[in-house]
Amino acid sequence: MNEKVIFKNIDEYILTFPSNVQEILQSLRKVIRESAPEAKEKISYQMPTFDLYGNLVHFAAYKKHIGFYPAPSGIDAFKSELSKYKGAKGSVQFPIAEPLPYELIKNIVKFRVQENIKKGKEKNTKKRGEPMRNSKFEKITIETTINAPVAHVWKFWTEPVHIMKWNSASDDWHTPFAENDLRIGGKFLSRMEAKDGSFGFYFGGTYADVKANEIIAYTLEDGRNVYITFLSDNGKTKIIEVFDAEETNPVEFQEQGWQAILDNFKGYVEKNFKA
Q1: Domain count, the chain
Q2: DSSP alpha helices (H): ranges in 36-189?
Q3: How far apart are CA 43 and CA 49, in angstroms?
Q4: Where residue 135 falls among pLDDT bands split at 50, 70, 90?
Q5: Where is 50: in which H helix or E strand?
């Protein structure tokens, strides 16, 4: 598979894998269906997804594991039960060579169902005429504070040799290629893909503003804008990133994905920075 493969439904996705993996994916799919009978199936971010008042859970197959994505809240609520598995802020990795913990998965899905139903009811009680959350015009803000001086944070953020080491939202993804012409009118490009090579995409844009150690603003190839502020405070650096949401996927999922990358950046800097 490559970035040009577009799956129309979950069946198409599952059929691209070996028979033993197909069996696991179908079993997982069945468990999710039974735990969330009102949820609808779809493909989001090229992954099998169940939707109920917004994205409920996602799953995906990799070379050595099944990725399960129940949002950060689903991971946090079952942190103890999931502690034996690798994972990230909103995901967990179940080894293909081991039986999947279907009872645990059922409980996580049911938890997410109740969570999304509550959100759905809150949306339905909005006053008539009050604007609903619309990704077309939505600006999403994420932020973090890093225990390192702004000059070092800037270096780790902008140099390709570092970008390739932190630019991913979970352990099963990476960035094998990055280039960066850091100047107004300059362009940047990176390749983000699953480590097993199953799929990936390019991410690029053009810089609209660059002020060393202070501001980076750019326009993505699809026309969306991103504005990043670096604030220095007593040896620490606060990053505030504001970006336009795209229309294909729910705002909440985009916010989680970008925040996960930012959190990964924070961890990378604090691990590798030497005072």
Answers
A1: 2
A2: 71-77, 102-124, 150-158, 160-166
A3: 5
A4: very low
A5: strand 47-51
Contact indicator for 172, 93 with CB cutoff of 8 Å: yes
- Residue 134 in any domain: the answer is no
Among candidate residues 94, 127, 160, the one where a domain is terminated = 127
Task: Check whether 129 has a pLDDT greater than 50.
Answer: no
Q: Are residues 40 and 104 in the same domain?
A: yes
Q: How far from each other are the two terminal CA atoms of the chain, in whole angstroms? A: 43
| Amino acid letter, residue 50 | F
Given a cut of 80, is residue 37 above it in pLDDT? yes
Q: What is the CATH number of the domain that holds 95?
A: 3.90.1150.200
Backbone dihedral region of 134: left (phi > 0), alpha (psi from -120 to 50 degrees) or beta?
beta
Contact between residue 58 and residue 44 where contact means Cβ atoms under 8 Å apart: yes
- Give the tokens for residue 74: 């689903």
Alpha-carbon distances of 270 from 256, 267, 275, rounded to whole Å: 21, 5, 10
Residue 126 has pLDDT above 70, yes or no: no
134 contact partners, CB below 8 Å, separation of at least 6: none
- Domain of residue 166, CATH code: 3.30.530.20
Q: Is 194 helix (H, G, I), strand (E, B) or coil?
A: strand
Average pLDDT over residues 12-24: 95
Which of 127, 152, 179 is the C-terminal boundary of a domain? 127
